[in-house]
Amino acid sequence: MPAPTETPDMRLHVRSAPPAGYPREAAAWSPSAGADFAGRRRAFLEMCLRSPAPPNLKAPYYELARLAMGGAAHEGILDAALDYIDVRQDCADFIIHAILRLLYQLPDAPLSPALWARCRATVLGFKYWPDEPGEDSLCTWTENHQILYASAAYLAGQLYPHETFRNSGRSGLELMAAARPRIARWLDLRFRTGFSEWLSHVYYDEDLAALLSLVDFCGDEELARRAAMVTDLVLFDMALNSLRGVFGSSHGRSYEESKKHAACEATTDTSALLFGQGSPTRADNMSAVCFALSPRYRMPQVLYDIANDQARPVLVNRQRMGIRVEEASRWGLGFKDPEDGMVWLSLEAYTHPRTINLMVRMMDAYRWWGNWYFAPLRRQRRLIRIAGRLGLLPLVARAFARDITRNLRSEVNLYTYRTPDYMLSTAQDYRAGYGGDQQHIWQATLAADAVCFTTHPARREGPTPNYWAGSGTLPRAAQVENVALAVYNIDTAPGLYLTNRLLFTHAWLPQAAFDEVVERDGWVLARKGEGYLALRSQRPYRWSEERWRGLPCEVVAEGKENIWVCELGRRACDGDFAAFCQRIVAAPLSFGRLRVRYRSPSQGLLEFGWRGPLRREGVPLSLHGYPRYDNPYAQAGFDPAEITIALGQRRLRLVWADARREIVE
């Protein structure tokens, strides 16, 4: 097993050749026009059968699809997957769900006896929770990892109830008993408060794989039903916040390539399969295979209808997700029990002043000081120890909070505005001035690659936060319908984790992805199809040397204080592109220090700054306290007892108290 301080090697090392006739090139996705789910499912599984598995950790899922279609699996990939789990590399929990699905769903598959024996041994030898023995660099604590580990533990225990699991020494029944309350609490918070990894086009894929394992194989019918209900809500989130298969919204966690290119989103294949939106890319997806193979989950038709309600002239969706550490008692949480600590870690509240003492105790109890992911804490271990002995940890955490709580994903209020030609999405007034890690605050989406967003880069390269993923300092951003305003005030105070040294902000605007790009009077204006985008920086801008498909793609504005204005339009409302450009350029716009007044052609006078409300024509607009859902399809207050989703005569009613899932087709 590698030393836990080593950088995780997140690759499968396949040691044997594929079977005869194994495909060499990826096959095309070719469902018939207007295909229903059965047709898309068949086309997806045929694509998997006729394609090699992708060269990433999700490869084992594609071998399951191949087996389900009667093909010969590449046992070398499955062997490599078992190797990966056995040495406890990070993300082994992604892979073990493929092995569990193989054991549960395809027990008669034509695999060698040696491979079947390895599957059993691996499941019985795995580490399912950080309280079990062993020092490693597994990430077990983030929101998606917690449900992956807890559900894997439950299903492994259910599969081998009277066997002894070698790592923990527990029986399968004991493993189930430990995992059930963790699963139940996770599901409860997701229904009531949504996801701290909000709208993640990376980690919703992992959540869905774990949820479908529970739906398909959990013998506890109530738990399985609750998992199906949360699955419904994840898909509802995707349907609300996607444009033609591009999950181009604000995200709680995102990475550079998935922000820039829809083909790299982990949810792309799932959208294609379930919603008929876009095409699978097999880039980094496992949930689509799980949906295609699922014997029990069927998406309610109303969710498909909502995802395809793209001709609606305007969709406004407001929703709130996540919890605040300051409201611990509301959610039955404290700051002493490690089980509560794991809930805090699901929103990555590592060094919040109220959680830091518990975090240090968990670091000791779970042998996390050597974990690669906690290297920043390990570097400050001496300071942490001294401050702990003096009872000063909360004070230190408070003093450096803007830097060291950059991972924290607390309550967020989300606003998405969608038309047939564009979508704009923002995390409203979210943690302005704090460091960011992987949060993606706002984005304009016109097509798969025709997107625009701004960030303050944390550093040129390295782990998140870096140049395009995350933020050195988060902006104060706000959106009203088709206009977004982002105010940057870069924090230059010395940090324990990261000190900001890049004193500029920048925008991703890939010229090659648009049909037209023009520059006029400080504005960058772009067209894609019948959708329009206008971007303005308070400070003078320049195009950097960075290129995408041979053309400039990065707009840079120097200065630690800056304001970016983005307005979207469309031919149906704004006339031709020339007319849109003329109105934008002629619109009165003035900047003060960290304040903007913009008389938008579509919204009227907008006023916003680093402090104070967002005003439209002098009237303050709410940026906080949103409902759980507020859109044409669902009205549900925050912490709802039930959620009803409807379009036309079709309806989905989810009642949490008694795990009731009512579907009207």
Key descriptive features of the protein:
8-stranded antiparallel beta sheet, 6-stranded antiparallel beta sheet, 665 residues
Summarize the structure.
By secondary structure, the chain is an alpha+beta fold.
Describe the 3D structure.
By secondary structure, the chain is an alpha+beta fold. It has 4 domains: 37-310; 326-404, no CATH class; 412-628; 630-664, no CATH class. Helix content is 33%, strand content 20%. The protein has an 8-stranded antiparallel sheet with strand order 1-2-3-4-5-8-15-12, with no helix packed on it. The radius of gyration is 25 Å and the shape is globular. The model has no long low-confidence stretch (mean pLDDT 97).
Class derived from helix and strand content: alpha+beta
Helix fraction by DSSP (H/I, runs of at least 4) = 25-40%
Contiguous helical run count: 21
Low-confidence stretches: none
- How many domains, in number, for the residues? 4
Shape: globular
How many extended strands?
26
Q: Termini distance?
A: 52 Å
Rg estimate, integer Å: 25 Å
Q: Which percent range describes the beta-strand content? A: 15-25%
The largest pleated sheet is described as:
8 strands, antiparallel
Q: Reading side by side through the largest sheet, how are the strands ordered?
A: 1-2-3-4-5-8-15-12
Q: Overall pLDDT, averaged?
A: 97
Question: Any chance you could write out the topology, listing elements then pairs?
Answer:
Blueprint: H1 37-49, H2 59-68, H3 75-86, H4 92-105, H5 113-125, H6 143-159, H7 172-193, H8 204-217, H9 221-240, H10 256-260, H11 268-275, H12 287-293, H13 301-307, E1 315-321, H14 338-346, H15 356-365, H16 375-379, H17 381-389, H18 393-399, H19 401-404, E2 412-418, E3 423-427, E4 442-445, E5 451-455, E6 476-480, E7 483-489, E8 504-508, E9 516-520, E10 523-528, E11 531-537, E12 541-543, E13 547-548, E14 551-552, E15 554-558, E16 561-570, H20 571-574, H21 577-586, E17 589-592, E18 595-600, E19 604-609, E20 614-616, E21 619-621, E22 629-631, E23 634-636, E24 642-647, E25 650-655, E26 660-664
Antiparallel strand pairs: 1-2, 2-3, 3-4, 4-5, 5-8, 6-7, 7-16, 8-15, 9-10, 10-11, 11-16, 12-15, 13-14, 17-18, 18-19, 19-20, 20-21, 22-23, 24-25, 25-26
